[in-house]
Amino acid sequence: xxxxxxxxxxxxxxxxxxxxxxxxxxxxxxxxxxxxxxxxxxxxxxxxxxxxxxxxxxxxxxxxxxxxxxxxxxxxxxxxxxxxxxxxxxxxxxxxxxxxxxxxxxxxxxxxxxxxxxxxxxxxxxxxxxxxxxxxxxxxxxxxxxxxxxxxxxxxxxxxxxxxxxxxxxxxxxxxxxxxxxxxxxxxxxxxxxxxxxxxxxxxxxxxxxxxxxxxxxxxxxxxxxxxxxxxxxxxxxxxxxxxxxxxxxxxxxxxxxxxxxxxxxxxxxxxxxxxxxxxxxxxxxxxxxxxxxxxxxxxxxxxxxx
Length: 307
Description:
Layout: H1 2-14, E1 31-34, E2 38-42, H2 50-61, E3 68-72, H3 74-83, H4 88-94, H5 117-126, E4 138-145, E5 151-154, H6 159-166, E6 177-178, E7 181-185, H7 194-199, E8 204-208, H8 222-242, E9 247-249, H9 264-288, E10 291-294
Parallel strand pairs: 2-3, 2-8, 3-4, 8-9
Antiparallel strand pairs: 1-10, 4-5, 4-7, 6-7
Helix pairs in contact: 2-3, 2-4, 2-9, 3-6, 5-6
């Protein structure tokens, strides 16, 4: 019997050990869609800027909310108020307080008819006096350095002052001085600030163009003459900007003059109509640039500490 047991043990020692089972394949990561960074680029156009309110209202109703908003002139006014957390309907209510008298701080000597301080105060009061970098939505205002003609994007600091600089139409508003530089309306370099939206990291850009074809009818006041001149300049500049946009919304603001604050409700409605028509194109642009990325993993939980 001992011989039999020894023989069995010897036989076992001569056989190779079985290979361990292969390690299980790691589970593939869970992929989730990551939409592109969406920006609204709101153009200038003085009183026609009320159309931006209608655009925002309609996009909100369709569940489309931008990550970035950048504005020139009137676009910076609406953009700042929107970036501060005011939805489309709240913006529409604010328009009741927006008329010539709200921003009329006249001066009779100097390089502008209006100081612009009333506009600055209006904006700061309605954004809770927050600086740009503290606004709930990323915001930029485009202005122009008077000395060099360089376009500047304000992304930090006093919201009202940035909007005032962006809206300082030469001859109408006094040019504000910021950091030793005089600034004028951003529409002199970027009437619809698509290129500045790109600088802010936007991946899909919806531009809102509220300019209009200038008619031959004469202007009856100095302010209207200046505003019409601005429209002419803007029409010449905007084409290159609009080529960079994924979607261009063009509200039908024909016949609404730059100083026509009485037509604000019509401008809002035209903004809504134009935005609704553009929704399929916006959704397609977002879908085309949406990519799948690994889902974020939850951090490992540590065992409770033992006292």
